[in-house]
Amino acid sequence: MVDVTKWPIFSLMGPQELSAIRKACVFGTSANEAIYITNDDEVYVFGLNCSNCLGTGDSQSTIVPKKLDFLSGRKVVSLNYGSGPHILLATEDGELFAWGHNGYSQLGNGTTNQGVAPVLVSANLLNKKVTEVACGSHHSMALTDSGEVYAWGYNNCGQVGSGSTANQPTPRRVSSCLQNKVAVSIVCGQTSSLAVVDNGEVYGWGYNGNGQLGLGNNGNQLTPCRLVALQGLCVQQIVSGYAHSLALTDEGLLYAWGANTYGQLGTGNKSNQLSPVQIMTEKERIVEIAACHSTHTSAAKTQSGQVYMWGQCRGQSIVLPHLTHFTCTDDVFACFATPSVMWRLLSMEHDDFLTVAQSLKKEFDNPETADLKFCVDGKYIYVHKAVLKIRCEHFRSMFQSHWNEDMKEVIEIDQFSYPVYRSFLEFLYTDNVELPPEDAIVLLFVENAFSLLSAAVRYDAEDLEEFCFKFCVNHLTEVTQTTAFWQIDGNLLKDFICRASRCGAFKN
């Protein structure tokens, strides 16, 4: 659990108020504004209120937290801030709200009037579910659950990705190279934008004077352009500082590029880099990286929990990653960033009070603690050998090649779709004792049973073939109504019918 009082603005709050906070964010030119969400999903703000960024309906500053009644009961999933400041907030229902500075239409409401209170951003986003938001200095981005990226606001350098430098008053889908891509993550620098798509590729657009787009040049880009230098790497996380960028791959490798005036790239010097360069090569696997557009500070956390910082740290230029005694990257920004803002919406989920079952479920698909990963449809699912062995003992014969004592770090799965296999693995991390794993297999494998049977026959996997055959016979009605059944090879279908009839599958 992170100690939120490390940010001075929270120091006046009492223990009872602090214990009710579940999520929080400190922002503003001098880190003088804060917003937090309580355990019962109430949203509070306090601070200086520059440009009406508190959303209280007036321009008054407040040292006492005020509740934003308009957002009461809405579950916040993503929040970000600009330099004005302006605020973007996305809820669990996919709604997007904005308020604060609006001199460049960064609130997306088609005007340049200040947003004194939260307003629903609906233009061009009807029937869209927003899952993530990002803010640059004066531009905004939103990511939908279907992987579409929308951008609006200040566009002097092409940071909206529209192909021009005209400001964008309402959300506009970023297309061009992203047209047929599924984005999974978005971030903004001051006047630049980056997106990661589902195959791990990174695209950048906007201002590139310091090489922060990583394209090998310093020319601005008015539309998304792929970072060719990261070809062959699968990027899992990207972050942007004021004018520099960091990328973390699925193998825990860290790359940096862009401005380096304060050593924020961690290369050991202050020379800008126009293309990504790998750093911390002698360190252990990196599991998290941190930066935000209002600072020149960088941070990273390793697999064993060590936290490093570099760049502008309390006025000093740290040109190489420096090992700290912190336990999380958030502490770096609380204690050493200028201003001491939060680099993300900080979540304080009170891990101390989780049950064993809740703790176990929380670790599913967590690369930081996993010791095994499955690759399905080119995507990774992170799991723990011990959990799978315990929960899947009944199916040891089915997955015999996977459950030997020397399991590989990566297991390729090509018999199932990603959603199906992920759902099955996630089930193994729940405490649902009423539904045994056998029934989970029934629910998840019906749609894929014949596809898996076909693959087992093709690759002479006798144990798997026998399991699938018996499964199909025992669930004949459900299986024969699936699309896979009607797409099965004719000879295989005949063979199945003959074998099934000998087992009495067609008796009245």
Automatic annotation (TrEMBL):
Gene3D superfamilies: Potassium Channel Kv1.1, Chain A (3.30.710.10), Regulator of chromosome condensation 1/beta-lactamase-inhibitor protein II (2.130.10.30). Pfam families: BTB (PF00651), RCC1 (PF00415), WD40_RLD (PF25390). Signal peptide: none annotated. The keyword Repeat applies. Keywords: Repeat. Residues 370-437 form the BTB domain. PROSITE patterns: BTB, RCC1_2, RCC1_3. It comes from the Eukaryota. RCC repeats lie at residues 41-92, 94-146, 147-199, 200-251, 252-303. PANTHER family: BTK-BINDING PROTEIN-RELATED (PTHR22872), RCC1 AND BTB DOMAIN-CONTAINING PROTEIN 1 ISOFORM X1 (PTHR22872:SF4). This is Regulator of chromosome condensation (RCC1) and BTB (POZ) domain containing protein 1. It comes from Lates calcarifer. The lineage of its organism: Eukaryota, Metazoa, Chordata, Craniata, Vertebrata. The gene is RCBTB1.
